[in-house]
Amino acid sequence: VITELAGTGRTVRISADLPVVIIGERINPTGRKRLAAALAAGDLSLLRSDAVQQVQAGAQILDINVGVPGTDERALLAAAVKEVQAAVDLPLCIDTANAAALDAALAVYQGKALVNSVTAEDAALDRVLPIVKRYGAAVIGLAHDERGISTSPEQRLAAARKIVARAAALDISPEDVVIDPLALTVGADSAAGLVTLSTIQLVRQTLGNNITLGASNASFGLPDRPTLNATFLAMAVAVGVTCPITNPLDAVARKALLAADLFLGHDAYGGNWIRFYRAAMRGLQS
Amino acid sequence: VITELAGTGRTVRISADLPVVIIGERINPTGRKRLAAALAAGDLSLLRSDAVQQVQAGAQILDINVGVPGTDERALLAAAVKEVQAAVDLPLCIDTANAAALDAALAVYQGKALVNSVTAEDAALDRVLPIVKRYGAAVIGLAHDERGISTSPEQRLAAARKIVARAAALDISPEDVVIDPLALTVGADSAAGLVTLSTIQLVRQTLGNNITLGASNASFGLPDRPTLNATFLAMAVAVGVTCPITNPLDAVARKALLAADLFLGHDAYGGNWIRFYRAAMRGLQS
Which of A93, A189, A281, B70 has the smallest set of CB atoms within 10 Å of its CB? Predict the structure, then answer.
């Protein structure tokens, strides 16, 4: 299974046989007061530097979320997409819960986007999938349905399967459905990590879709989150995640993903690993 | 499957449903000139401090290798076992290619030891398994046979299966056979890591034995080996390794294994993770 996405100048392929693709998560006002304030004031200049920084750090897709209360997300998201596409040429992941904003953003988007996201709830599928189809985009399917986020990997698999089936009914191919198995914090439920990892294995083995993951939720509330996030990312990639959503500026996570690529046979002779190491050494010396 | 080992005062259980068990690798003269010189001179005093340090750092089993050219390994290994068992109460892993030394060491060992190791070669099986059986020990089976170390996970699985079957024929139960899938360096063969990870998955899914791994071979010759080793350990544990052989004094590896335990549901509410973090913080402040 190969998911192909495109920006203005670059096509990115996601597959278990290729190196991990990082979806850069930084363009999101949640927890970033300065970005939230800028967006609320209609100032999009931060988006450009955020975009360029993430691409330089190794992101191959950028998530774009501009959800700030009190703003017109429909206008803001489309403007943000234009702004970021003027700065970087790789594919974007349009992140919104607002169908009108999604539609407006895809209308101005150049290339083939990834839509973040749809759940397995009937209302969400009915609302989002036709828009995905209309614009020929790909979509992230969150592995939960009307019953909420299950603690059973089999039920999460069932939700993923439902999304893939409903997409297929609209002629959206499995290549264009990327599954998010969902990660909850292990600080609240000790089994949460294992449920996520087991879901990844089930999706990989039975559906075969590409798999994303917002791994950092898992470490919420615990000390030394960078190490926890990096370890969870490596474990998740070992069992089947192919395009995690993460912060490429986090060097600990970045190194774990490069190392994971190396051990999965996706970095011939450690070329990428050695290049990253040398660049880091130069950074320390300068 | 639960492997139970015992030292003079402590029983250790290894299982996929329990936290990872670290086999401390430090008591081995390979690459440790000072230890090699001490052993060659018949001085065993370093073993005690090496043993205590590793236990304090979280090892639950200690590997004991005293192979130094020009020494009488038979006498030295037995003396080393006595020396270490006088210092720490947990199980030991008797590491030798010399059957007479193994026999002598097990004869003085108190408890139930782990023997490191036997291959799937007929001559090795004939030589080692009867000794393992005689002393009621458990044994590590290296996943290679007369044909050498295969690049095919299926052939490594076949070697593991042969060891389990030959052990069973001597009434050594599968619980008492721990499989080592073998790790070669990815610097020489880019597929080496994937072969190891795939072998782990096959052994876990088809045989179900406990699985050990000397993960650090994989990073040989590459920069930033601690990060590579830690990442490979986390990935290996994610797919089925239950008792890696590693250096517990390596804080990067130690943290990755604690994080892996957390994400596999083996650390309720992150208790061990938080304790380790606090201890590390106290260490930095003192």
Answer: B70
Interface A–B counts its CB contacts (< 8 A) at 127
From chain B, pick out residues whose CB is under 8 angstroms from the CB of A218: 263
Query: What distance in Å separates residue A118's CA from the closest CA in chain B?
Result: 26
What is the structure's pLDDT at A273?
Answer: 96
A234 chain-B contacts, CB cut-off 8 A: 231, 234-235, 238, 256
Mean pLDDT of A160-189: 97
Are the beta carbons of B77 and B101 closer than 8 angstroms? yes
Tens digit of pLDDT for each residue in A145-161?
Answer: 999 999 999 999 999 99
| Distance separating alpha carbons of residues A241 and A179, to the nearest angstrom | 9
Residues of B with CB under 8 A from a CB of A: 186-187, 190-191, 193-194, 196-197, 218, 222-224, 227-228, 230-232, 234-239, 255-256, 259-260, 262-265, 267-270, 273-274, 277-278
Percent of chain A with pLDDT over 70: 100
Q: Exposed/middle/buried for A12, CB within 10 Å: 0-12, 13-18, 19+?
A: buried
Radius of gyration of chain B (CA): 18
Q: What is the pTM of this model?
A: 0.96
Predicted confidence (pLDDT) per residue in B77-93, tens digit:
999 999 999 999 999 99
Q: How far is CA B126 from CA A93, A138, B268, in A?
A: 60, 58, 44
Q: In sequence order, what are the residues at sequence separation of 6 or more whose Cβ sits closer than 8 angstroms to the Cβ of residue A240?
A: A16, A200, A201, A203, A204, A211
For residue B277, give the nearest of A188, A250, A194, A226 by alpha carbon.
A226
Contact B167, B129 (CB under 8 A): yes
Q: What is the pLDDT of residues A72-98, one digit of tens each?
A: 999 999 999 999 999 999 999 999 999
Out of B193, B230, B264, closest to residue A262 by CB: B193
What span, in angstroms and rounded, lies between the C-alpha atoms of B68 and B198? Answer: 34
CA–CA gap between residue A39 and residue B43 (Å, rounded): 70
- pLDDT of res. A286: 61
